[in-house]
Amino acid sequence: MSGKIARLEEARVAVQQSLDAARSRAERNRLGQYATPGALAREMLRYAIGLFAPHEPLRFLDPALGTGSFYAALRTVAPRGRVTSALGFEVDPDYGGAARVLWGGEGLVLRVADFTRARPAGRCNLIVCNPPYVRHHHVGAEDKRRLRLASERASGMRLSGLAGLYCHFMGLAHPWLAPRGIAGWLIPSEFMDVDYGQAVKRYLMTRVTLLHVHRFDPEDVQFADALVSSAILWFRNAPRPDDHHVRFTFGGSLLAPRMAREMPACALRLEEHWTRFPRGTVRARGAVPALSSFFRIQRGIATGDNRFFVLPEGKAVELGLPAEVLTPILPGPRHLPDDEVKALDDGTPEIARRLFVLDVALAEEEIRERHPGLAAYLAQGRARGVHARYLCSHRAPWYRQERRPAPPIVCTYLGRVAGIRDRPFRFILNGSRATVSNVYLAMYPTGRLAGALARDPSAVRQVWSILCSLAPDELRGEGRVYGGGLHKLEPRELARVRVPELAEWLSKARTMPLGGRAIGEP
Hints:
about 525 residues
């Protein structure tokens, strides 16, 4: 780094810190403003330069420049004479104005404007960008329609309304990239797992040649003020060769990853969860039954207001609430140290923290006549506005809960890797009549498995044991991960987990007809 560029970079970091400090964390979250650390920017540009032929001229573009972290890195790793043009966009005038002062005399053309509204002018051969991480709910309906149409026209990427702004930046940058040009994107890794990310992956598999996907360890958060798991994509604007392999790396740094694997591009098109790589291999779908063949899987109850509807046993007694409107419900996973819940004689859980969910089907007039204590408590809820909350206002009556019979097996919905078990998710055997909240996934046996358990209810313990023995990578590979190492499994994702051991166990059971009634179903 030359002395002048080093001084400018030092000044840039100071300006960045000052501008960030002047805004609240909530405001920067809404605007998706998370600056790229200088060391990471330099590493990315060193990598990018290595993808070009020696001395090949560079025409640079950063569609979300900020204060110019990537341009500073470019000037550090490439001689100025090799950079024949450099263009940056920054929508925020405070950051854009600072960048203009810093880099205006150093060969950078800066437009303080919204890149998503710009028309392609010329073709650059190097795009490096950390686009705004603006979640879809911070994008207005009119802007969503405009962005979806513009992204499809520019790249063929048909994004859903759930896509974050960073996906549209990728799509809209496509016509700016020259044939055989290189693009590097520092983006959240969630696109690799979520449904809206399928459009991004189709683009990477069909419109360009994906070269390298590096995923940072989720516990190594790249942005101190954003709990997001990050990835770097590198691709070339060229047709993909038939025998092309994509390099997947994980952990460590871009230039010195902890794990690496070359994956055949043709097989990646069949994979829904790319965060399985490089740890996992491409799987043949349909060869082994998944959990969906044996269970109906649902999120637990979303009450609309747990503080009102979920009561400790003592408070329910104190309020004089009738037993028939109280259903036992399991507490959160941190209050269940054991993976088996046993029952008392009345079927309630034999645990220290005994909770009940209020679930009433009676009309208010009947409640006032028969249960004055319950009527008084519901009146308190109405006075607090519980009845007007989103979920409650869409129920009739507002105090009635979703139908969730006690599931014999539940799986935790969120978790972190902890301890030697290395298991973010737990399967819990529920021997009680307790239902579960939406921090759990309720698993109701169906089909042949339901039939087998109806003939021998004690066999549920064997099924639970099989689920507990599933390799952690099988579960993590179907779920998604966030910054800080938080893992999540949605019902459809858990349903895709393959269970050859369960299929083998069931095949050894006595022959049974299909279509057995699911445990817990009416």
